[in-house]
């Protein structure tokens, strides 16, 4: 995004000792008094809010792009659905080369490895049913 806030101070603002602050992500404007003792505090709060909003937006986008198939039969799911190329899928994988190749061949997606956030979650492999971990499948470009 670059610079998160735009400050405007023209003749009119200068006359009344105000600045217009625009949030560049939402294009919302606020007018602040230049002699406000809490001016820097208010600007810092605005920057923290922008940072928090961006983190939430990224987390939401991430959630929308990941589909969890770990509770389903992967093979049955593939018989009824096409995987969407712009999504990632969570599947269960035991860690063997043989099952990685089977997952990739069935899905035509690439196995990226274990989901690090869920690395301690033990599940049964989608292919061989041996103990495995939640892993990520995504389209390879
Ligand atoms: Zn396996």
Key features of this structure:
single chain; 141 residues; alpha+beta; Translation Initiation Factor IF3; five-stranded mixed beta sheet; three-stranded antiparallel beta sheet; 8 strands; 35% helix; elongated; binds zinc ion
Main β sheet profile: 5 strands, mixed
Kindly state the percentage of residues in helix: 25-40%
Radius of gyration over alpha carbons?
Answer: 25 Å
**Total of domains:** 2
Count of alpha and pi helical runs: 4
CATH fold descriptor of the largest domain = Translation Initiation Factor IF3
- Strand fraction equals 25-35%
Quick one: overall form?
Answer: elongated
CATH architecture label of the largest domain: 2-Layer Sandwich
Q: Could you name the CATH class of the largest domain?
A: Alpha Beta
**Beta-strand segment tally:** 8
Q: What ions, cofactors and ligands are bound?
A: zinc ion
First-residue to last-residue Cα separation: 26 Å
Mean pLDDT figure: 91
CATH superfamily of the largest domain: C-terminal domain of ProRS
Low-confidence stretches: none
- Protein structure class: alpha+beta
String of helices and strands: EHEEHEHEHEEE
